[in-house]
Amino acid sequence: MTAALSLPLRAAIAFLAAAQSIDSLPPRHSPRSVAIDERLAADYSIRLGDTIVIAATPAAVGDTVVVSALVRRSRDPSEVARGAYRIRVHLDQLQRLVGYGDRVERFAVGTDGRTATDSALAAIDAAAFGFRAYSSREIAVESSTTFLVVSRFHRAIGVITIVASAIFLLCIMLLKVDERRRDVAALRLMGISRRTIVRSVVLESALIAVLGSIAGVAIGAIVSAFVNWHYQRVYRTPLTFSLVTAQIVAIAVGLSLGLGIFAGLLAAQRLVRQPPLSLFRR
Amino acid sequence: MILTLARASLVRHRARTLLAILGVAVSAAMLLDMVMLATGMRVSFGSLLLSQGFQIRLAPKGTLPFDTDATIPDASNVVRTLMARPDVVAVSPVLGAQLHVEHGATSVSAAALGTIAAVQGDYKLLIGHAPTRDDEIVANDALLMALGANVGDTLRVAAGFDPQLRTFTGQRTLRAVGRVHFIYLSAGERALAMPLESLQAMEGASRTDRASLFMVRLRAGANVESARSAIEQTVHTVSAISTETAIQQVEQRLSYFRQLAFILGSVSLAVGFLLVTTLVTVSVNERLGEFAVLRAIGVRRTRILEQIMLESAVIMIVGAVAGLGLGLVTARYLNSILAAFPGLPEAISFFLFQPRDAWLSLGLLALCGILAGIYPAWRGASLPIGPTLREEAVA
Predict the structure, then answer these.
(1) Nearest CA to CA, how far is A7 from chain B (Å)?
(2) How far is CA B63 from CA A52, A209, B70, B246, B344, in A?
(3) What is the ipTM of this complex?
(4) What's this model's pTM, rounded to 2 decimal places?
C-alpha cells in the first residue's frame, strides 16, 4: 500500500525537478499558509489545501497562498454586525503586502497575575518608546460602550414590561377574587374569619403566580433557544444572544410571586371589607 | 340606550375598568414606541443622508463610507470622470484622517476631513467662513472647547506622532477661521475640516491625490439607481452606494432593533387583546341574567352584541389614547439611552414620531378592541333566555 502510494509521488517530484532544470527558473518558494474565515470558505467554495491570491487592493499583484486552516469567528459581540471576512496571515507577509514596514498596531503581553500586570503596565509606560500600555480590563471597559447602551435599553424595556405585567396580574386577580363573591359571603356567614379568607386567597394567588412562573420559565427557555438558533444563523456567529441563568429565573419567579401575593392581598382585602350579605347582591 | 348601558356597565366596576384602561395604556405606549422604533431609524437615517442633496456616495471598492482606512486613488481624475456625466451636478471628494492639534499647552487628537469648500456637504458653518486657503481650518465646538481655543486662534496641527522620538510629524501652523457643526459625526466627537489638498499634503505620499469618499449630487429627476450602476461600471476602484442601499445596509446592521420592535409590538397587542377579552368575558358572565332579561323584553340580539363590543372598544380606545401620550414620553427616554451609541451621528433618532405611527397604533388597538369583544359579545347575545333566567333566579 505504501509503495503503491509512494510511486506516483516520486514520479511527480521527479517531474517537477526536471521541469525546473529545463526552464532554468530561479528556485520557487512554496506558497505560504493562510487561515481563512469559515464563512468565506463556505461562500466561495474554498477548501483546505486550495491556492488563493491575497492582495492589499483589488488591482494589486498579491501573494499566492495555500489555505491551511479554517477559523471560526470568536464570541466577540463587537464583530456580530460586521459582515467582513477575516483571514490570518503571517505577520511579515502582511507587513510586506500592505507596505507597513516593521510595524505592528499592538502587542499583547501575557502576565502572571494582577500584581505582575500592574508592574508590567508601569514598566512599559515608563519606557521612553512612546507606547501606552492598557490592561485587558481597561480595553474591555472602553470597547464595551455599545453593549452597555444596549444593556441599558433592555433594562428600560424590561421595566415597562414589568409594569404592564403587574397591571395585567392585578386585573386578573381582581377579577378572579371578584368572581368568588358568593363563596366568600357564604364562608363569612358560616363563621370563617376574615383572616382565614384573606390567607386562602393569598395562598391561591401565590400558587397561581408560581405555576405561571414555571410555565413562563419554560416558555422563556424555549424562546431563548429559538432566539440563539435564529440569530446565530442570521449573523453566522457562535455568540450566545440569549441566556436564561439561575439568577434571571430567581428574579423572574421572585418578582412574579411578589406581584401575585400583592395582587391577591389587595383583592381579598377589598372583598372581606364588605358585609357578607351585600356580597350576595349583584 | 346602548351607550347608556355600556357606560353603566363600565362605571359599575370602576377599579376594574380603570386597571384595564391602565393596562391597555401601557400596551399602547409600548406598541407606539415599537412602531416608532421600526420606522424611525430608516426615516431618520434617510433624511440625514439626503439633507445635503447628495444621492450617491462612492467608497473604496468593497467597503462602506469611512468603514476602513482604505482610500480611492486618482481622486481628481474620478471627479473629472463623474462631472463629465450629464446627470451629475456636483461631486464632493472627502479625505478622512486623524490629526493631533496643539494650542498652548493643550494637545488633543481630532478627526479631520479634507473637503472642497464650494461643494462640501459635511458641515454647516455657524460662525466665520469656510476654509479655502492652505493654512485655514474650521472646527466644531467639541474640539474648540477641548483646546480652549476660539475662531481666529492659531493652532499647531500634526499629521502623525513618532513614537521613537516622541515628536509630532508633518506639523503645520493653521488658523481656525470658523466654527462648524459636522452633520454626520456623533455628538462630542472632536473634528475639524480643511481644504482637501492641504490634508493630502499633510498626510504625505500615501495620500497624494486620494480620497476616502465621494459624494455625488444628481440633477433633479435623474434616475439614481441607473446613475449608481453606471458610475460603478465606469470607476472600477469604487463601490457606489445610493441612499436607498445605504439605508438597507444600516438596517441590516441594526436589524436587531427592527426585529425587537416587531416582537415587542406584537406582544403588546396580544397583551392588550387578552386583557380586554378577559375583562369583558368576566363582565358578561356576571351579567348573564341581565342579558337574558333584556332579550326577554324584546331587545334584539344585535343590540346586545353591539353593547358588549362597544364596551370593549371603549376600554381599548380610551387606553390607547392615554397610551399614546405615555408612549411619547417613554420614546424620548428610550431614545436618550440609544443616542449614547458610540459613533452614532447626532441627528439620528431611533424613535421618530410621525402622525402615521400614531394612527397605525390607534387603528391596530381599535381593531384589537373590536376583536376582543367578539367572543364575549357572541356569548352574551346567544344565551338561551328561559334556562338562563331560571338559573339566575335559583342562584
Answers:
(1) 47
(2) 21, 52, 8, 11, 18
(3) 0.72
(4) 0.69
